[in-house]
Amino acid sequence: MRVFVTGATGFVGSAVVAELERRGHQVIGLARSERAARALLQSGIGIHRGDVDAPESLIPVLSEVDAVIHTAFNHDFSRYLENCEADRRLLDVLARALAGTDKALIATSATVVTETNGLMTEHKPASEQVPRSASEAFLSFADEGVRTAVVRLPPSVHGAGDAAFVPALIALARQHGASAYIGDGTNRWPAVHRDDAASLFCDAVEQPRPGARYHAVAETDIPFRDIAEAIGEGLGLPVRSLPVEQAETHFGWLAMFAAIDNPTSSDWTRKMTGWASHQAGLIQDMTGARYFDPQTR
């Protein structure tokens, strides 16, 4: 199978590319710069020059491939609403171009796309009140000859090279001289190792179920306090509880995520695809992946 991957040089996308190749697939990666093109060529995979901010630039490659995996997303949270809308537009363009082809279009979403309380399952649709739900609007093209599906990622996709929420929490702990959690810290985060997440993207493209929502979740409900304590231990810093009104002072833009309670099941995903997690859990990986090296931001 020939698979086009956006975000092919990114943290998750590069792992997806490696897993696709391991399974014997041919990969074409999106390159929006000379630097990205060189990196892809050095990896021995094909390239398509284009830009996710110009969705039409991706259309020519669609006739050359059997499936598309979209992992690119702009994580600049100062422009979060704009970025979510841009992702919706991109996926709409791709889905319309693929209509009637019966090709798979697998995109990235998040486990935090619903506003419902309790355990998050694959059967719960995204809430229109959550900005990232824009990344799931294209699922409706399952009725127009596109094998659409999303892989929802948890707040922590961890592993060597992680530059997202956990490294940001570590940097804040260094800055403030303490690791922190909000209230009693019993709010829960799901997590997955990036290699396990990559495996699920490949399962999704090999076993397309139009309109499916998959959960790349290895650990369902890690108390945020446990993450904060692991950071404190890793840095040799105290760990403290913060009242809600002080959370933004410590966490800044991360305050909303530090407070989120997002227990998430992957039972249906495992049953439907046979997917299983094999890598280290988050707390163990925070040491093994060198999260606390001095150069970690």
From TrEMBL:
It holds the Pfam family Epimerase. The lineage of its organism: Bacteria, Pseudomonadati, Pseudomonadota, Alphaproteobacteria, Hyphomonadales. This is NAD-dependent epimerase/dehydratase family protein. GO terms for molecular function: aldehyde dehydrogenase (NAD+) activity. InterPro entries: Epimerase_deHydtase, NAD(P)-bd_dom_sf, NAD(P)-dependent_oxidoreduct. GO terms for cellular component: cytoplasm. It comes from the Bacteria. It comes from Hyphomonas hirschiana VP5. Coiled coil: none annotated. Residues 3-214 form the NAD-dependent epimerase/dehydratase domain. PANTHER family: NAD(P)-BINDING DOMAIN-CONTAINING PROTEIN-RELATED, PROTEIN YEEZ.
